[in-house]
Amino acid sequence: MTFFEIAKQYLELGFTHVIPLGFDHILFIVSIYLLNPYIKSVVLQCSVFTIAHSISLGLTALDWIIPNTDIIEPLIALSILFMAVQIITRNHNNTSQYFIIFLFGTVHGMGFASALKEIGIPRENFLNALFSFNVGVELGQIIVIMLAYFTLGIWLSEKKWYRERVVLPLSSLIGCIALYWTLERIL
């Protein structure tokens, strides 16, 4: 395969790993959005998440980190549950939020690496494949953010009832799904 064929293939793999296959990833990104519907803040937090998962994905793909998927998969679900609880309790601030998102990004990156290792990464085009995969993931995230923004934020986020009627029910639903996944992945 040529450089560009590999780039295209891994870009598509990264994108489809989020949309439509990454429901847990989508819920995490929506949770970031529900914390604060201001697009600049959401994009910045998602960028921190992307940087973190890119680092851990690369280290795991190189076998410098060898995570146990029996631990990583429940941790991914717990990260989503944690975000839902933060939204509901309003227990977050901007400074620590970036650190928390970075930590969760490293965990999600190890999960991405497991999926990517099953597919395989060409050693001769490792950086190209890894970079393209991450760009695909980022594009998927941006689409999720834009969908959330244009279906909820732009129209409803300034309404007095937005938190009560939109944020809290969605966060509760996300939390219930994440709790179920946590238990399912542990058991």
**Topology as a string of helices (H) and strands (E):** HHHHHHH
Kindly report how far apart the N and C termini lie: 41 Å
Structural class: mainly alpha
Helix content bin:
over 70%
Radius of gyration: 17 Å
Biggest pleated-sheet summary: none
Large-scale geometry: globular
Low-confidence stretches: none
Strand content: under 5%
Structure summary, number of beta strands? 0
Mean pLDDT: 89
Tally of contiguous helical segments: 7
Oligomer: single chain
Key phrases:
mainly alpha, 7 helices, about 190 residues
Notes on the structure:
By secondary structure, the protein is mostly helical. It contains 7 helices and no strands. The protein has helices at residues 3-18, 23-35, 39-61, 69-89, 94-119, 126-156, 162-186. Helix 2 crosses helix 6 (126-156), helix 3 packs across helix 5 and helix 3 runs antiparallel to helix 6. It is globular, with a radius of gyration of 17 Å. The termini are far apart.
